[in-house]
Amino acid sequence: MNEDWPSRRSYRWDAYDVATLARRKEAMGLAVSLVVPARDEVATVGGIVSRLHDALVETARLVDEIVVIDSDSADGTGVAAAEAGAVVHRSADIRPELGSVPGKGEAMWKSQFVTSGDLVVFMDADLVEWDTHFVPGLLAPLLHEPDVQLVKGFYERPMLAADGGGAYDGGRVTELVARPLLALAWPELAGLIQPLAGEWAVRRDHLASLSIPTGYAVELAAVVDTLERCGLDAIAQVDLGRRGHSHQSLHDLGAMAVQIMAAVERRRGHPAPETVALRQFVPGGAGLEILERTVRTGERPPVGVLA
Fold first, then answer.
1. In the chain, what are the domain boundaries?
2. Burial of 140 (0-12, 13-18, 19+ CB in 10 A)
3. Could you give the 3-state DSSP secondary structure of residue 237?
4. Is the distance from CB of 264 to CB of 218 less than 8 angstroms?
5. What is the pLDDT of residues 196-221, one digit of tens each?
6. pTM above 0.85, yes or no
7. pLDDT tens-place string over residues 25-66
8. Which has fewest Cβ within 10 Å: 38, 45, 140, 290?
9. Terminal CA-CA length for the chain
10. Which of 201, 24, 37 is nearest to 126 (CA)?
């Protein structure tokens, strides 16, 4: 742990070995659920699940279940995940009486109804540079620090193109939107290196107390709400080394930025609409063409308040 970090709870992934963590988990009588929200990730999800299942379910017995929440994929993502060893649920089929909307956060919210672990680890489904140590690295603070509620991963995150730039240049929304917003509204969180990291872990009862944005703002909302509710020392972060994944277009990043800004507005006490009309511009045959999209910015209530 590095006492210089503002959170005072920063670790390296290799602080504890997997066998030690598995024994501690068993002695504490805890179960671990690994959740992978996925949409059209057939190229990567099978390999991710297979490696995690072999290393952490079959061998180390650190993880009790791997659950893939398939968010209306059209490319065989669910089949690939199931064949690799995951339990697969379509997001729309989970508690259908509650309705369904597209989005990563929606899949993560729905996962609470079909998992049973006391500790929940989330991983993205589009990783191409990663290793299985991500999961034990994220679990270690929860297993050793009883007052830690949420653990964020951080890593080098380069652009994967040949001219990708520096080690952290892959986090464009982080650097241009999330970090400036945190600096303005919650400067206590300035020490979080990857506030939008898709690799994070949380205690189930704490997760059940959080409102969940249905889109890409779920990670930022979770750290802000944890800070407000539990204080800075309830948040830890772990250096996971290096992470590579597919990158979205600039226009798609604009939609993500809208969702993050809406979540921040709500947490600053200001109303935010459930949907936002975002107008963007793209080159066309006769000049610029208008690209209009409706961005969903709604949130799901804490699972703990539902009957």
1. 10-301
2. buried
3. strand
4. no
5. 999 999 999 999 999 999 999 999 99
6. yes
7. 999 999 999 999 999 999 999 999 999 999 999 999 999 999
8. 290
9. 40
10. 37
